[in-house]
Write a structure and sequence with these properties.
Elements: H1 18-22, E1 26-27, E2 32-33, E3 41-42, H2 45-56, H3 58-72, E4 75-76, H4 79-98, E5 105-107, E6 109-110, E7 117-123, E8 130-135, H5 140-161, E9 181-185, E10 190-195, E11 200-204
The structure holds zinc ion.
Zinc ion binds at residues 171, 173-174, 178, 195, 197-198.
């Protein structure tokens, strides 16, 4: 899969499944609000479930219930899934470290019910915990690309906190901060960092070298 020209949301991971958007239903004055679903209000979790069942189906409601459970009581990954996650994480963590970024704590546990994905959880430093995942059926290089993209969003949040340009990683060829895009090449055989501005592959993901550091805001 390629993501040429795809604009990413640098402030927050986009909710790629509707259950993320509605998973945070909060009760204000005894009302349940559905995040991005048109502002519908419900008097109870059961009423919300009934509405969701009608509009999105039983399977969705069941997954939402299971996700709530997992959030309270995360499930440790089995060894096969943990190995998939570790393999996809290694190159991305290498590149974070090589560019002077902090590393989050990695938890090999699922807090979301997504049978089509291998889920993990990252936390800290100084950040809210959040889920990461790779598609179970994707080739390994594509899984690396998926995680790289998720960590770009995470890194952007870290950099904002540090009052730096929320762009990671950056291309060293430019005076202005130019971010790199995570892509795959040769039929998903290789995951690479690409500069859209230079129009070239800068490095395989996992092989960024020291010196590709993020820059302070206003730096050149
Ligand atoms: Zn460039």
């Amino acid at each position: 899969m390629r993501s040429v020209g795809k604009k990413k949301d640098r402030t927050h991971p986009a909710p790629d499944q509707p259950d993320q958007a509605v998973g945070s239903a909060v009760s204000g004055k005894g009302l349940w609000r559905l995040g991005d679903n048109g502002g519908a209000h419900f008097r109870s979790e059961a009423e919300a479930d009934a509405w969701l069942r009608e509009h999105l189906g039983e399977e969705f409601v069941e997954r939402r219930r299971r996700s709530r459970e997992l959030l309270r009581d995360p499930q440790a990954l089995d060894e096969a899934d943990a190995a998939v996650l570790r393999a996809a994480l290694a190159p991305v963590l290498h590149d974070l470290a090589a560019t002077g970024m902090p590393l989050p704590e990695i938890r090999e546990e699922a807090r979301e019910a997504r049978e089509w994905a291998v889920c993990g959880w990252i936390a800290g430093p100084g950040m809210f915990g959040q889920g990461i995942n790779v598609m179970r059926n994707s080739p390994p290089a594509e899984q690396v690309r998926q995680l790289a993209e998720q960590f770009q969003n995470w890194a952007a949040d870290v950099l904002v906190e540090a009052r730096r340009e929320p762009v990671w990683p950056v291309c060293q060829e430019h005076r202005v901060v130019q971010g790199l895009e995570a892509e795959t090449r040769d039929d998903d055989q290789f995951a690479v960092w690409v500069c859209m501005s230079c129009d070239r592959v800068i490095a395989p993901i996992g092989e960024l070298r020291k010196g590709t550091r993020s820059r302070p805001v206003g730096g050149g």
